[in-house]
Write a structure and sequence with these properties.
Length: about 375
């Protein structure tokens, strides 16, 4: 069935059928027959929803015939409609290729997230969403190295769990050391413990940060000494790290100190500028700024609480974008003037006529953009 529909889709994409469908798109007709049918795009039916923790949910998605598979560790762009507006976010696939279909995405729920909160509240089994092809190069080498080290925090566990499931399914006989940090509950924690039980070579070290704080102890932090205690020869392991910026900053420091950076692969998952700036920010996020969109001739009243991408959209513009978390670089735009902050790195930039990524950048002064 899938093969037959792929052949049919190839025919439907030809100029003849495109012309016959004008002024409409051929997909509009196909949706009348099957809401997941598309000549070009990956559409997927939501077949199951499960809450994993108080702030994490898993979705099982059955994609159409345009889906071409994925490698463990990759992510997809999930597009949904909320209030008549299309929103796209990136989420790692938490299942493994060997698990087959449906795919599993595991989302950390953000209290004010348009997708992870607003859409999830209305999502029901049977709903249809749109997916990108699998993206990203945060994947294991082939063949998998004999010694691996994973470091994760929060929902950064998801791509590494996909890798671990893949290793287990393919009979990996090497050594895997895994350090994971969570606030209270570990997302997919039961599954993680079951993998550790089934894989003799998996050495797992889980650290909860909030219980430590409530007991008056400092929150556990990644350090070279902690890694030495877990696996003394960790510098010789191929390492993969995924989590919030604070954890990845510690990872970068430790690897720099030990000169092991060449064997380190990093994936950022945090929303960057979508999150509130830290309390140590030296300027007020409430200060109003003037945002000038030079090419469109528009102006707006801005602030430091949201990304320039979000504020441009709120002003009625439609900047080109993709992932919204600093990965795809589709939202690059020239800043003619002004001071901005990269929310992933914390770096301030006052250089004129410089390209910035709108999705991870917030204003710290009046800003002029080539939009």
């Amino acid at each position: 069935m899938l093969h037959a529909r792929r052949l049919l889709n190839a025919v439907l994409r030809t100029p003849l059928f495109t012309a016959l469908a004008t002024p409409h798109d051929i997909d509009g007709y196909l949706r009348m027959l099957d809401r997941t049918w598309s000549a070009r795009h990956v559409r997927a039916r939501l077949v199951a929803i499960r809450r994993e923790t108080d702030d994490a949910v898993s979705l099982w998605l059955l994609p159409n015939e345009n889906w071409r598979g994925f490698r463990a560790g990759q992510f997809v762009q999930l597009s949904v409609w909320v209030g008549g507006i299309r929103h796209t976010r990136c989420y790692s696939i938490s299942s493994a290729p060997e698990d087959g279909l449906p795919l599993r995405l595991t989302l950390e729920v953000q209290p004010i997230g348009r997708v992870s909160s607003a859409w999830l509240r209305q999502a029901r089994e049977g709903d249809v969403v749109e997916l990108s092809p699998a993206l990203g190069d945060f994947v294991l080498p082939e063949p998998a190295p004999a010694r691996l080290l994973f470091v994760s925090g929060g929902s950064g566990i998801t791509p590494l769990l996909s890798m671990s499931r893949h290793l287990n399914a393919t009979g990996y006989a090497g050594r895997l050391a895994w350090v994971h940090y969570a606030r209270r509950a570990v997302i997919l924690g039961d599954e993680l413990r079951e993998l550790a039980r089934r894989q003799p070579g998996l050495q797992l070290d889980v650290r909860l940060t909030e219980p430590a704080r409530s007991e008056g102890a400092p929150a556990p932090r990644l350090s070279g000494e902690r890694l030495d205690a877990l696996v003394p020869d960790w510098e010789g392991h191929e390492a993969f790290a995924c989590g919030p910026a604070s954890l990845l900053g510690s990872v970068a420091s430790v690897w720099h100190e030990r000169a092991a950076g060449g064997r380190l692969h990093v994936e950022r998952f945090d929303a960057g500028a979508d999150a509130s700036p830290s309390r140590s920010t030296p300027w007020s996020t409430e200060t109003p700024y003037r945002l000038v969109f030079a090419r469109s001739g528009r102006e707006a009243r801005g602030h430091g609480r949201a990304s320039l991408l979000a504020q441009a959209e709120a002003a009625g513009l439609q900047p080109r974008h993709g992932c919204r978390i600093g990965i795809c670089h589709r939202c690059r735009c020239v800043k003619r003037a002004g001071v901005v902050r990269n929310e992933l790195t914390g770096v301030l930039d006052d250089e004129p006529d410089k390209a910035i990524q709108l999705c991870i950048t917030t204003p710290c002064s009046d800003v002029i953009l080539e939009l």
